[in-house]
Amino acid sequence: MDDKKNLSLEEKLKQGLQQMDQQLDTEEPPLLYFETLVREERKAWHQRLWKELMLLWTAALLMITGLALSFYFVPALFIIIQVTAAAVLLGYVWKEKREMVMINK
Amino acid sequence: MIMEANDLTRARNGDEESLARILKEHYSFVMKYVWKMCGDEQLAYDVTQDTLMKAVQKIDQYRGTSKFSTWLIRIATHTYIDTRRKQKRNERLEQQERERLKQQTTHQLPEEWFDVQEALWNLEEKYRIPVLLKHYYGFEYREIADMTKSRTGTVKSRVHYGMEKLRKELNEHG
């Protein structure tokens, strides 16, 4: 019923947009432009990935250093961090498992 | 067609020349899609440029389960929605651009078709994008929901209300 009602409007819309497609004047750049874009974007993307990886390693290194220091100088803090991390991890696993069970039901 | 498939395989394996060729082939298609969606030439250029850059970054994620053009449209739609969200572009500028386009195309297009385009651009974006994707590009509701980051039911109702609004507008001016 709804489809029938829309039919002529759909056709009008399609034809209007087809006309527009023909009228829109897009200047397509030469192949060299795309080759340069691909090369430069790939390079920039790899640099960005390396940067993020470096940041991740730095953060990990800092955390391990902090943990090592706390193990030797403030053992209580070390234990608190370990227990908290284990609790968070267990909580996360439990939540994921519960959601999975709910989806499979 | 076979050549495009070969280029795609090579592009996914890291061949830059093949990827450049494919992007060139699809440039006008993406550009015209975004232009129709937003009615703003400059914004269409910017979004197309960003879409191509994302395609370069994510080409290894293209699995070939849909057409390459569909994959590009999905990226372009996400990019456009994100750009609009970030920029909160000045509506007045957009209106000026449409006026310019209107003057440029009024004498080139039959009035009936021009009314359709004008009515489409007058629609709110949340209706315009799904209507365009459904009734011009022929995507399924599910695919449009994925492209516009919304629920299938929401897309269905937006297409329905969008078409109703278009009908009203065209009847008023027709």
Strand content of chain B: under 5%
CATH architecture of the largest domain in chain B: Orthogonal Bundle
Largest interface, chains and sizes: A-B, 27 and 37 residues
- State the total count of DSSP E strands of chain A: 0
What's the number of domains of chain A? 2
- The CATH topology of the largest domain in chain B: Rna Polymerase Sigma Factor, Chain: A
Main pleated-sheet profile of chain B? none
| Corresponding CATH superfamily of the largest domain in chain B | RNA polymerase sigma factor, region 2, helix turn helix motif
Total helical segments of chain B: 9
pLDDT averaged residue by residue of chain B: 84
Give the termini separation of chain A. Answer: 36 Å
For the record, give the distance between the C-alpha atoms at the N and C termini of chain B, rounded to a whole number.
42 Å
* Main sheet specs of chain A: none
